[in-house]
Amino acid sequence: GGVSTCVLNASPEAAGLFRRAIVQSGPCIVAGEGWGPGSSAYGLELGANLTKRLGAPTLADLRRLPPQLLQWNNDTLMDDNFAGYFVDGLVLPTASTPHDAYASGKTHAAELIVGATSKDGTAQMYGTAPLANATAAEWRTMMAKRWGAAAAAVMGQYPLQARFGGDAAAAYIEADADERVVCPSLEMAQLASAIPGRTARHYSFAHLMLACDAGFATGTLPLPRSPALRVSHAGWASHGSDVKYTFGTTHGPDSLTYYGNTTHLKREECPFDVSVGEAALSEAMGHYWTTFAGTG
Known about the structure:
Elements: H1 2-10, E1 20-24, H2 40-54, H3 59-63, H4 74-77, H5 98-104, E2 111-117, H6 136-147, H7 151-157, H8 160-164, H9 168-193, E3 199-205, H10 214-218, H11 229-232, H12 241-247, E4 251-252, E5 268-269, H13 278-295
Parallel strand pairs: 1-2, 2-3
Antiparallel strand pairs: 4-5
Helix pairs in contact: 6-7, 12-13
């Protein structure tokens, strides 16, 4: 949803359709990385591979196939650097990027809210982040694999012991979140607010929901779901955790954590904990968002 809103705000095709927009954890301004668009060449390459795999070389052939077959292959879908959309020359012009549109004011929303959660990013949701019981050695190995030559510098900014008390999952995920979602979201707000006549508000959601944070399902938050985690993991909010508060949703789980395992396709209650103000937080967020949509 956030990515779609970000893209539509930068697309000439959406001109005149809206004047306000909210982008929750979906920055599209870093081309080819995280949730930014892939290149036209990459999109054409993947499209050609798909039609070849399906034995459907023409548009008419594709239209005759069951729609559930029109999917990227599993390797691509589980790539935490694959957003699934591309510069196509129509929705996104080939002569510019979404970043260009936000920097030059060629976007449509005169008023914008943009933000992210504290433990956002792509790695946790694609299973490429360390688990809650990962060792320091495993963290170093995964950091080197993720950031290559820049790993030492990144580890210096996100020191495992000094900032995260040895929690490998927290250190890795926060670095990934900052690069892929948090910092690009902040930059979007800064770019938008620098345009005369435009306003932008930025938020950061950092509340741990013991009942249903996706980190429990992905194995990046430790069990059991003890109230002690509110201290040891204070400020942890996985991708999508703010959505429950925006809409007042008290059941789950988050579909992003299914990984194709249908045993989890059941209703799971996610009640707000009144004792720590979760119901009030949800009510406040819903009020802010609806007021913004109605009057700015």
